[in-house]
Amino acid sequence: MNPLVIVFAIATIVVVALVAIFLYFLNVWVRALMSGARVSIWSLVGMKLRRIPPSLIVDARIRLIKSGLALDTDSLEAHYMAGGDIINVVNALIAADKANIDLTFQRAAAIDLAGRDVLEAVRTSVNPKVIDCPDPAKSATGMLDAVAKDGIRLLVKARVTVRANIERLVGGAGEETIVARVGQGIVSAIGSSMSYKSVLENPDTISRRVLDSGLDAQTGFEIVSIDIADISVAGVSDVANVGAQLETERAEADKKMRQAEAEGRRAMAVAQEQEMKARVQEMQARVVEAKAEVPKAMAQAFREGHLGVMDYYKMQNIESDTSMRRSIARTDGDSDSGPIDE
Asked: How far is Cα 326 from Cα 333, in angstroms, rounded to an integer?
């Protein structure tokens, strides 16, 4: 075969391939060229070979150029290959630039790759969002339960206004941490209050105390304000005069406490009475024991000669005389008054 024919065939194939490639990328290349975001054909071919959608990269670059931001395609390709959302990052960069927020592509890409919505973060930084505390989806009652020092339970619902902190989004805690910290701060502030009345009168003092605690440290947000949306006494939400019911319940509790104290004193009195009766029985037993010693002492006196027969007779006569006089002194009316001790 003629060498010229072979060379001509190869040249023809190369030209056809180049034309096919040009026609394939013509639409994207022209769109980039007309938008001022010029991209070479070979860059588009390289994107295709790296399995990167050329139209996606070109569209993202066109948005940046039209917004006055310059960024090469290599950075966009690298972020796409790392698994990032190119369009979301580009929209975040444009929104941040229009809002005069200092946000670089590297930081935006890092936030996106960390799993955070960088565009939502920029929007939250411009327009703060409101978070319910506690989270209604994770709380059965939707209220925080706190107890003041006087023992009254309060149900509280707060609304936290936060602004995204772009610099702390990477590595900073999220909304759940903010909700947990604010809930803990509110419960602690109410627990340190002397009375539930002071909390109901000035709920803003609770929010100010919690806000001054620096709860947004090490988080991706900055707390703008903490507002007490609802506060009520637990168990009396349907009562018009809450104070009267609480006073009534407190009086009833005091009554029961006083009754318990009185019952305790009565039990102590009964125990003391029984103790005194036992002492009387003990004394009587000692008297009987002492009387039993008298005959023994008399017998001993007889044996030792300290007591004579005549002395014994005289003592017997005195006892008989005393007994007779007592019998005469008794009257029929006094017979029921009880025996006379001898």
From this structure: 14
